[in-house]
Write a structure and sequence with these properties.
- With 236 residues, this protein is mostly beta strands.
- It has one domain (26-234).
- The protein contains no helices and 15 strands.
- The strands form three sheets. Strands 4-3-6-7-15-14-10-11 form an eight-stranded antiparallel sheet, with no helix packed on it.
- β10 and β11 form a beta hairpin.
- It is globular, with a radius of gyration of 19 Å.
Length: 236
Amino acid sequence: MDYAPRVITYKPGRSTKETWFTGPFSVAAKGQPTGARLQLRIDDNVDPKGLVGEYADVNFPMRLTGTTQLHRDGVLVADRGTTIDKNFEDAEKASYELKRTCASAGIFPMGGEATAKWRFTAGGTGDTPTSVKLLNVAFDAPLNDLNQARAGRSLTMTADVSGAVGGLRDVRAWVTSDLGATWQQVSVHRDDDGEHRFTAPPSALKSGGFVGVRVTATNRRGNTVDSTLPRAVPVG
């Protein structure tokens, strides 16, 4: 994990708990247009604090796979990698759709399977580098030290949607207990702190399985994100 160095002071008589590599792990993207150039980066393993990790597949042949597609005004302009650096013939404002899919054949204790799709506009800002206002969803849930939820109990999760310039217009959520074969839409509630909460019912938490989640969001400028994690939370 890409954890920044921290200085921690421990005092006698007090107990301190530090938790590392907590799930669920989300997919996030960021980007920057400069003139006719567009740079994008996708991270497949982002924890609830926004810290970036990396899936390591030691199998031969490798089972971890990933695909990327970027469309500009409906035309495919990139189809590989987690880093995109494209120069176009013009620097005009354009509509984009970015899609990232990763799969791992279930070799990781959690995560390793995700599909995320972003729709956004970029360009037309001259030669000054600017940030692409991509929507991203970071998930969090009260899991045990093994990153598991308890079977047969409801699980309330948070979805922190960032990058929403002008505010969010719509946020929806679904859960699955069969790796995405079927989905159940659930209600989403917005807290005073801006986080969105939804609850997976007890029927979705089956021992030895996974709770999967999907969240879609749209901001008032029309940018969207559709984040799907079929193996978001293991159930113990």
